[in-house]
């Protein structure tokens, strides 16, 4: 990977703010090297590989957003998985979290097929785009607050450009990141900040009454990680309910 991409937090903020559209963000993201710990980890994982994927070439770079560039619904998770998105180059693709999620997205009309195996599997998302607060796979799925802060401008610019009616947030990490971002972008986010919970619905209005803007609704949903789905904490029916609620709020039916 040539060192041509953003290499400092200031450079991330600059290139993200200058991106004219989602395609520009998607193009610059895979070149980013601004978080030394995550760059080292994503590349180490890509070299060492999991035995089951020994014959594959891992992506090993930041993973851009995926989905409909005109979506009314945005989905925000946590970060790519080491052997999922960091292997395939597409969020939630090629891991158990994605198996659970894309089956639900297909049942609820957002995905063209119920499986997500590779970037070239033909899967199309309609009315939904997915993103993450951190775009490089972190050790133990645990980015630091500094890494979330450094990567934040990418998500902020995506939210600004897409201007979704609904944001489905998978888990508390994403919830905090999205609330912080929307507060910076002029939405009235109460303090103390509303807590994350499965099924929590939060409607935000603009903080400046002289600037009319349609509200944005956040929907909380337990993350689709095996930790939740294998234990029954998040069931297919629970996820379907959230996604169908997103469809209704976004007036997609
Ligand atoms: Fe760049 Fe984000 Fe990856 Fe940090 S986490 S290196 S800011 S893409």
Low-confidence stretches: none
What is the CATH homologous superfamily assignment? Uracil-DNA glycosylase-like domain
Counted by DSSP, the helix tally is: 9
Task: Give me the Rg, rounded.
Answer: 17 Å
Q: Give the ligands present.
A: iron/sulfur cluster
What portion of the residues fall into strands of 2 or more residues?
5-15%
Return the CATH class.
Alpha Beta
Strand order of the biggest β-sheet: 1-3-2-4-6-5
CATH architecture level-2 label: 3-Layer(aba) Sandwich
Sheet with the most strands, sense and barrel status: 6 strands, mixed
Query: What is the total number of structural domains?
Result: 1
The global form is globular
Give the H and E element order: HHHEEHHEHEHEEHH
Distance from N terminus to C terminus (CA atoms, Å) equals 44 Å
How many E-type strands?
6
Structural class: alpha/beta
CATH topology: Uracil-DNA Glycosylase, subunit E
Mean pLDDT: 96
